[in-house]
Design brief:
Elements lengths: L1 E4 L6 H10 L4 E4 L2 H6 L2 E4 L5 H10 L2 H11 L3 E4 L1 H5 L3 E2 L13 E5 L10 E6 L17 E6 L1 E5 L5 E6 L3 E8 L2 E4 L7 H12 L4
Parallel strand pairs: 1-2, 1-3, 3-4, 4-12, 5-6
Antiparallel strand pairs: 6-9, 7-8, 10-11, 11-12
């Protein structure tokens, strides 16, 4: 069973549909027992960092997420779900993130003549090839929708990068914790392969 964490954020339904399309049993839930008993856990989301952290605490999900990531269960953050795993975000100054991974979220610079938010397809390169990208060649395109991006403190966890107004840490991996700034569920065949790779990872 795959648990998709429900904290009233956007884009949860499309992740549920993508996982189901891969033939996996999936539940959208905020129940601690469902999340901790799942084989794989996904934290998707579109929205504001501060509002999302408030809801994670309100629903008791922050501690549950830390339990999951400590347990070794494969865990995937997507878009806002990636950002929440880190220490802080310029979008919501003074609001601590989950601090599961080291780094901070900063706003894309708007002095490059590029539209913010960044909405569209960008190609990936792999400074450290991660398990999510097995069988996926460099320069494959994935779909982004974001105004803020990750600056990871530890370059060893960065498995994919792209460029849009700044160098963007597009995906990370540490232990069985994975995260993508882009949306694999909206990234056509490449994105489905990424999700399939994640679902093949064992605890």
């Amino acid at each position: 069973m795959v648990a998709v964490i429900d904290y009233d954020a956007g884009n949860i339904k499309s992740v549920e549909k993508a996982v189901a399309a891969l033939g996996e049993a999936v539940t959208v839930t905020r129940k601690r027992e469902d999340i901790l008993s799942a084989d794989h856990v996904i934290l998707p989301g579109v929205g504001a960092f501060g509002d999302a952290m408030e809801k994670l605490h309100r629903y008791g999900l922050a501690d549950t997420i830390r339990e999951v990531t400590d347990s070794g269960t494969p865990f995937l953050g997507i878009c806002l779900g990636l950002q929440l795993l880190f220490e802080s975000s310029e979008e919501s100054e003074g609001v601590p993130g989950l601090n599961i991974l080291p780094g901070r979220i900063v706003r894309l610079p708007d002095d490059q003549g590029l539209k913010i938010p960044h909405i569209g397809w960008n190609s990936l390169s792999y400074p450290n090839r991660g398990r999510l990208f097995a069988g996926i060649p460099e320069e494959s395109y994935v779909y982004f929708v974001h105004s803020y991006y990750l600056q990871a403190s530890d370059p060893a966890i960065v498995t994919a990068v792209t460029e849009y107004a700044a160098p963007i840490h597009a995906s990370v991996e540490r232990g069985n914790v994975f995260a993508c700034q882009f949306h694999p569920e909206k990234s056509s065949d490449v994105g489905m392969r990424i999700l399939r790779n994640f679902l093949a990872i064992e605890s």
